[in-house]
Write a structure and sequence with these properties.
The chain is built from seven helices and 14 strands. It is α+β, with helices and mostly antiparallel strands. It has a single domain, classed as Glutamine Phosphoribosylpyrophosphate, subunit 1, domain 1 (4-Layer Sandwich), CATH 3.60.20.10. The strands form two sheets. Strands 3-2-4-1-10-9-11 form a seven-stranded antiparallel sheet. The chain has a seven-stranded antiparallel sheet with strand order 5-6-7-8-12-13-14, with helices on one face. Helix 6 packs across helix 7. This is Gamma-glutamyl-hercynylcysteine sulfoxide hydrolase.
């Protein structure tokens, strides 16, 4: 399993979002509060962020625990961004891919992370892998389940699907092929965030018109954090958060279908003045 976080809002140093909060992603690497599977996320980490007037994000990824990288401490202190996606990793199985297996994965304007595990990997997804163009399979950054899930999402994005639909359809397809998989996916373009809650925790913090944070778990004790129900697609911008239920393909009596249209808009109430 892993812990991950995406942010849209005013420019902030990476460290203010990822290191300084009391229960930050940095701390979640060894002391997550709500992680359902695994206890330590020490098999690598990564952060991707967007610079002003550049739609293609930069990334910094390592195969070491985040607390052991002094270069990241310097980077987090001085780099500022209005949008990011970061993750700390607990590998499902041992592998030799190193930092290539650490999220975020990237292509074009997108950053992607997978918190979970594909049941029966790799045999369970062999048919889905065969459905991808050979060049996309040969371009996989790593040989882990998350990299293949990202390839399935990216194939849909390149085919014209909007971001939430690409995540929803991929989750339903993988869940049908590998029942029991945990598929919390997180995707950002720097302007929007899409995510799925499927087998593990997902939360969001919204200040409409200012900032939106989507994370595996709250990084502080702000009472405005809201939990996303399991089997749900989240689509967010800086102004709103939309939640859509996802149907388990085993309950549909047939092959996975597209997720239902957005049915619920949720936004946090304005903060009370601090005293």
């Amino acid at each position: 399993m892993c812990r991950h976080l995406a942010y849209l809002g005013p420019a902030e140093p990476l460290g203010r979002l990822l290191v300084e909060p009391a229960h930050s992603l940095f701390r979640q690497s060894w002391a997550p509060r709500r992680q359902r599977y695994g206890t330590v996320n020490a098999d690598g980490f990564g952060v991707g962020w967007y610079a002003e007037e550049d739609p293609v994000p930069a990334r910094y990824r390592r195969a070491v625990p985040i607390w052991g990288d002094q270069s990241f401490a310097d980077l987090a202190r001085v780099v500022r961004t209005t949008a990011l996606l970061a993750a700390v990793r607990d590998a499902t199985v041992a592998g030799a891919d190193g930092e290539a297996a650490a999220a975020p994965f990237a292509a074009g304007p997108w950053l992607f992370s997978h918190n979970g595990a594909v049941a029966g990997w790799p045999d369970s997804l062999a048919p889905l892998a065969c459905s991808l163009p050979p060049t996309e399979l040969l371009s996989l950054e790593a040989r882990c389940d998350s990299a293949l899930v990202w390839a399935l999402v990216l194939n849909r994005l390149r085919g014209g699907d909007e971001e939430g639909q690409a995540l929803a359809d991929t989750v339903l397809e993988v869940a049908a092929a590998a029942p029991g998989s945990r598929l919390n996916l997180l995707l950002t373009s720097g302007e929007t965030i899409a995510a799925t809650a499927w087998g593990d925790t997902l939360w969001y913090l919204a200040e409409p018109g200012r900032r939106t944070v989507v994370a595996s778990e709250p990084y502080d004790d702000d009472p405005h954090w809201q939990e996303v129900p399991d089997r749900t697609l989240l689509a967010a911008s800086r102004t709103d958060v939309l939640l859509t239920p996802l149907k388990d393909p085993r309950e549909q009596g047939g092959p996975p279908e597209h997720g239902e249209p957005h049915t619920h808009m949720a936004s946090a109430p304005p903060k009370e003045p601090r005293t």
